[in-house]
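User: I'm curious what two different proteins look like when written out as structure tokens. Can you demonstrate?

Assistant: Sure. I'll show them one after the other, since each token string lines up with its own sequence. Here's the first protein:
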Amino acid sequence: MKKILMATAASALMSGAAFAEDVKVGVLLGFTGPLESLAPHIAGGAELAIAEVNDSGQFMDGSTVTAVRGDSTCVDAAAATAAAERLVTGDGVAGIVGAMCSGATGAVLTSVALPNGIVQISPSATSPGLSTIEDNGLFFRMAPSDARQGEIMADIITSRGINEVAVTYTNNDYGKGLADSFAAAFEAAGGTVTINAAHEEGKADYSAEVGALASAGGQALVVAGYSDQGGSGIIQGSLDTGAFDTFVLPDGMVSDILTEKFGSDIDGSFGQHPSSANDGAGKLEEMLAAAGIDGTSPYAKEGYDSAAVLLLAMQAAGSTDGAAVSAAVTEVANAPGEPIGPGELAKGLEILAAGGDIDYVGGSDVELIGPGESGGSYREIEIKDGAIEAVKFH
């Protein structure tokens, strides 16, 4: 049996947000910035889980949950910190789903969540550096570390007979962490990285960056960037000059924005993003689609799962106190216990209220390892006829 300390939970209940009070949860994502096209789907996932919990009437003696959005902008750490501070001190949120990008996530954790004792669950931050950041047990993520994605990407590239690539990465924690992880794995497999160069977001002209990449050469260009800004700028410059016509697309680049911009011009390009092939994934995609949300969009399912795990942990702890919730997160997210999938949050809440154990599987096959992060599976994709198509899962 899992060991939730019921006496502690009972006393915490007296000081937590129970007895039909309103519990606020921050949804802190990059609603503006280089991944703004993905944020609405992630937020929609989180808010669908919150609505499901409210509809159940089972949450903490009938308490309701309200989502409060904040804009982390993805790449502006100061703006992310200010938004998180407003959520905590102004709106009084009891937990945070977010942030979205790795640098903003680390800044919010260090400056806001940690000093205020707030549990923070990111659906999408992937920097390897977040695995070892000081968090007092308050930080979790539904996304796997890019230490894993780098290895998967190297495997996918070599399986396609490509042994020489150029790499460009967005100049932040996410980009550098992924580029370094990939380069190490690719070179260990016998591949050659001709250049590993940073680019900045938001520039109007990437001709200098593309020129350097073209001079180094390679059979393909790995673009470890963001689809809405720098990554697309690099691809546009490459197509305009004929520098590259095959692009490797990690998670930050897998977006309909990319195919809307380039269509079949990037056919044959390929990549990967965290995703699950379990039964819950399909069910959750259907649930999200019914709510007008693209469940295949990167991290939309993890948005739902992040909010679900946060609220189930509060139920298990009988409190919104950060330390109590933190202690319960892994208990509700991992085996043993009754498996809980998407659309079954009422069942999970009921079991926990009765003192039982659950194993939240969700839509992204949740199982937390090590420092509270997903072990991770990935969907390999390819651009065919101007559209993103699934190839297989890794």
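Here's a second, unrelated protein for contrast:
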Amino acid sequence: MKKIDLKEEDLGNRLDYVIGLKNKDLSRNKIQAFIKNGDILVNNQKVKTGHILKDGDVVTAIDLGIKEEIIYKAEKVNLNLDIIYEDDDLLVLNKPKGLVVHPASTYEGVTLVNGLLYQVDKLSTINGENRPGIIHRLDKDTSGLLLVAKSDLAHKRLAKQIANHEIDRNYYAICYGTFKESTGTINMPIKRDPKDRLKMAVVKDGREALTNFKVLEQYRNHSLLELSLITGRTHQIRVHLSHIGHPILGDQTYGPRKFYGNTGQYLHAFRLSFKHPITKKFMTFETKMPDEFLEAIKDIS
């Protein structure tokens, strides 16, 4: 039996549906037969085909031809990562734009994990060899603060904080259009786009997604926002802003066909607040607005 990698967006969905996403060559009936026969297990137990996957579930299967996440021993690479805080249990770093956080079936190049292995003496092992220390992630072209676990105990406790929405993450974004309101909350469910499996979308039966926003500045045809995540769905801020008609500047996936610049979305995680998993001390870290933002603001003002 081989372990089947589960992504955040898989949680809350039926087992047979998720297996179907990972191998479109298998029919729904075939997948359900595998599950009923015990060829696909959850936590080493037979379950119903409609079992709803939850955080912590471990799915294993016989060789079904399912595309699994690539597992390999990442090489150490000196990326000169900007680590702004570090102790025996965790670290906080400022991820640059353009750097993928960890390897996956769709990306085997140099990632932030390679740099962590070079610069950090120990990392948590809970997520395996290709995601050591990784608790949460930022999109490749989103810059900013990222929390990394160095011990397994810290990892477990921080992951629980994330699941309970106890870690505050605040972002800067430059988006298209101006707003009548100065603050607001976007409450729209998100799941994988049924029309394009490479994208996420606001879908009626998706998972709950909440984003708070505050307008900091307005220009001729653009706005600078501060946003905070209540939930943490894949591409949440990008999907929400695009859905309400204010896609993020430079977003090549959810923005206009003719996008601004050539470096991706102008989205930066500038503040991170959490309770230290060991000392219980409340900690807050901030970074300044990237120069790229300042240059874009001059251009659009």
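A detail about the second structure: The longest strand covers residues 168-176.
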